[in-house]
Amino acid sequence: MVNIMTKEKNTVTRAAGTTVVEDRFRDSAADDGIREPVFKTNNFNLWYGDNHALQDINLTFNQNEISAIIGPSGCGKSTFVKALNRMVELVPVVRTEGEILYLENNIFDRKMTVEELRTKVGMVFQKPNPFPKSIYDNVAYGPRVHGIRKKKVLDEVVEKSLRDAAIWEEVKDRLNENAYGLSGGQQQRVCIARALATEPDVILMDEPTSALDPVSTTKVEDLMHELKKDYSLIVVTHNMQQAARVSDTTSFFYQGYVVEHDDTKIIFENPRDQRTEDYVSGRFG
Ligand SMILES: Nc1ncnc2c1ncn2[C@@H]1O[C@H](COP(=O)(O)OP(=O)(O)OP(=O)(O)O)[C@@H](O)[C@H]1O
């Protein structure tokens, strides 16, 4: 593949497309030692009735990395991330085969309850979906469900989660106001704070910025970069620039299977498969 390596201010511009891979966010495992897997799937398959939506998925996601899931509409990206915290089982016709290991435990084993799994594997959705409650109560919701009642402890969790979600300064004087009164970008960061409040290891994000304006998108992307110091992030995105900007690894899904999974730099600059190259350079999608 032909690359024009115009390396300016940590930026590489590809010849075949418009995607820019920025190095400022990228410090993948290769740069600073090997990280442990947080999720590993072994021949994972999923059907919605007769529709074989995920086919023989074998992927590994490491701790403290941002992993992007990309691919055209309907290729199974959302289904895959919703399988990782078993949310997909809310659909009655779903059937699965194969394994998903979370820290080496099969998430389908009886030993692990769905509640335990979802405490450790939080999710943020495409559209900000705060509860119709105060900002405080949104963030305190998970800890309260887990039995935390002491106001002092809840106060601390709420403040820490909002700080970690980079929204504390904007909302600290209006914690008792309804979260619906916030902008879309602020609501999304409150939703991220709500996910952080149960102290997860992994945060799944399904197109977390597609409903946001460019300024809010930048804030959430900066936040993702901060969060990966303490969490692992698996992010579905349609936005090639976003995947290139923020992720360490990228998996390209196509028609229910994984065509290619590799370091983001390789996927965008030197993919092995022609379909990956065509997709990341915008020739189809
Ligand atoms: N609740 C559901 N019931 C039945 N089939 C479903 C359901 N959700 C998804 N599917 C099917 O599973 C396949 C994968 O859909 P999925 O939403 O995971 O794709 P996607 O890559 O996330 O798409 P998009 O980028 O458009 O959000 C599609 O064929 C879709 O029709």
Keywords:
285 residues; 11 helices; Rossmann fold; binds adenosine-5'-triphosphate; globular; 6-stranded mixed beta sheet; 13 strands; alpha/beta; 5-stranded antiparallel beta sheet
Counted up, domains total 1
Question: What is the third-level CATH name, the topology?
Answer: Rossmann fold
Adjacency order of strands in the biggest sheet: 9-10-11-6-12-13
- Low-confidence parts: 1-18
- Compressed to H and E, one letter per element, the order equals EEHEEEEHEEHEHHHHEHEHEEHH
What class do helices, strands and sheet pairing give? alpha/beta
Q: Termini separation (Å)?
A: 20 Å
Count of individual helical segments: 11
What general form does the structure show? Answer: globular
Which distinct ligands sit in these coordinates?
A: adenosine-5'-triphosphate
CATH class designation? Alpha Beta
Tell me the helix content.
Answer: 25-40%
| Rounded mean pLDDT score | 88
Corresponding CATH architecture: 3-Layer(aba) Sandwich
At the fourth CATH level, what is the homologous superfamily?
A: P-loop containing nucleotide triphosphate hydrolases
Largest sheet: 6 strands, mixed
User: Strand-residue fraction?
Assistant: 15-25%
What is Rg? 19 Å
Would you count the extended β strands for me?
13
